[in-house]
Amino acid sequence: MSSQNVTQVLGIVVLARGGDRQTLYLAPDDYASSLSYITPLGEQQEFQLGGSLRSVYLNVTSPSFVQGIFGATALFNQSSVIVQADEAGEDGTLFDGAQALMQGLWPPSQQEAIFLANGSTITSPLGGYQYIPIDSVNPDEDVSLEGAPSCTAWSMRNEAFYNSAGFLEKANQSASFLSALQPYLDGRPVNLENMVYDYMNVQFIHNATYASQLPPAYMVQARDLANWHEYNVFADTAASGIGNIAGRVMLPSILNTLQRISNPLDGLKMQFSAISYQPFLSLMNMTGMFESGQVPPAIVEYAAALVLEVRQPFGGGEPVVRANFKNGTDDEFHIVDMIFDNWNGSGGQDVPLSNFVAAFQEAGVNSTVAWCNVCQQAVQRGCQQALAPIVPTTPEGAASSTLTSSSHMFSPVGAGFLGAGLATILLSALLGLLLFAGVLSYGGIWRLRRLSYISRRSRDWRGDEMELHSEVNSVVGLKMPHS
């Protein structure tokens, strides 16, 4: 009997890559990104992924149905689900993809309706569209989904990698091929350090003329080099290595959610995160999924998904963690073995939750202050404020105080009371102003929605070809995809 038939799913942590998008450029040293936009193809890929997740985890007849989450016929329950998307400087690519995925996961329902006093029934627009709240995570304020940009220690590691004997040998081996790519790069410079695979991939998908002229083997070779490059940049030999920073910043949230799901009194059943391909490389490296040989050490496809299931044996005992992976639209979900310290994989597909948490807890980067210290960053991404010393306000305080991080300026209780008081005062003032101005009437209910982007897509049509571009397509010395 398979282990799937002797365990039940208590909840899941879902990591999903964004769908097809316009060309994105990243600086080769610190991976600072340009803007990009999701395409209708990308939205469909995300929507289909949402449908796949729905059929596996929300279908009451599925062996992997999440217990207690409510079935596929029920409405979205915000109390049991967390949805977040990496803002990542991509002008909403991952957020928009998450919206499309949520439409597939919780499609319109006639139950999304209200009965009025006059006896009529009003259904939400678009046949009962369900508005799923998504937390847009700004990487300048929260490092939990985006660990690499502006991480000085990680950039220094990259420079050392680019100067290593292994890299120089690979660059020498690929020099003739990279030279042959020049006619297909629209004047963009190329070398192994500054791969332009993303430009080729976007053009190959969306530009019929380009796709017909590019030798078929070139895309395969370019992808192989990009995979080799990115794996070496975003994977490290030790879980706590700086090369794994893209995954390490996500570990605290992942581990906390897995533990919350295992607690029957908590009620949390799902955490969904829309992220770039980079944390996939780090996390799958740390958990030994690449080492198991079931997944290649490569950039995951658009709309790929990694699901960490928390399962409870029917006979009782400790909950276990199982990995389920789907590498893009054309793949199906399949179980992937894990191998890491204190777990060599011989115990099967299911890892005891305590083993999993113990193996990765120390590697997690659980705050901005911790990220600043690990990355040797003192200014960017909130570090200047997070690392600022406390300035005493009285002579007595000056005599007894020591310089510490500003993140410890208030105790949690004191900060809570102070924050609540200030928030009440400011909210009252704002509401009074709005009522006075006539903007808000008594009895009105506001539902906050994320602001739409000023510019969604830019397209130029040229006969049978479409060129997708961003404002920085001509920037020299930038590379690689991000979402």
Descriptive overview:
This protein is an alpha/beta fold. The protein folds into 2 domains: 1-387 and 450-483, Rossmann fold; 395-436. The chain is built from 16 helices and 12 strands. The chain has helices at 40-57, 93-105, 125-128, 152-162, 165-180, 197-206, 208-213, 216-234, 245-248, 251-262, 278-286, 353-360, 368-375, 383-386, 395-400, 412-437, and strands at residues 7-17, 81-86, 113-115, 121-123, 135-137, 270-275, 305-313, 320-326, 334-336, 351-352, 459-462, 465-468. The strands form 3 sheets. Strands 1, 2, 5, 6, 7, 8, 9 and 10 form an 8-stranded mixed beta sheet that branches. The chain has a two-stranded antiparallel sheet with strand order 3-4. A two-stranded antiparallel sheet has the order 11-12. Helix 1 crosses helix 2 (93-105). The longest helix has 26 residues, at 412-437. The radius of gyration is 24 Å and the shape is globular. Residues 397-420 and 437-483 have low confidence and may be disordered.
Question: Which structural class do the helices and strands define?
Answer: alpha/beta
CATH top level of the largest domain is: Alpha Beta
Tally of separate helices: 16
Q: Which band does the percent of strand residues land in?
A: 5-15%
Counted beta strands:
12
Helical content band: 25-40%
Please name the CATH architecture of the largest domain. Answer: 3-Layer(aba) Sandwich
SSE arrangement, N to C: EHEHEEHEHHHHHHHEHEEEEHHHHHEE
Count of individual domains: 2
**CATH-level-4 superfamily name of the largest domain:** Phosphoglycerate mutase-like
What does the largest sheet look like?
Answer: 8 strands, mixed
List low-pLDDT spans: 397-420, 437-483
State the CATH topology of the largest domain: Rossmann fold
Query: Terminal Cα separation, in Å?
Result: 39 Å
| Mean pLDDT level | 82
Shape: globular
CA radius of gyration: 24 Å
Keywords: Membrane, Transmembrane, Transmembrane helix
Transmembrane segments: 415-448
GO molecular function: phosphatase activity
InterPro entries: His_PPase_superfam (IPR029033), Histidine_acid_phosphatase (IPR050645)
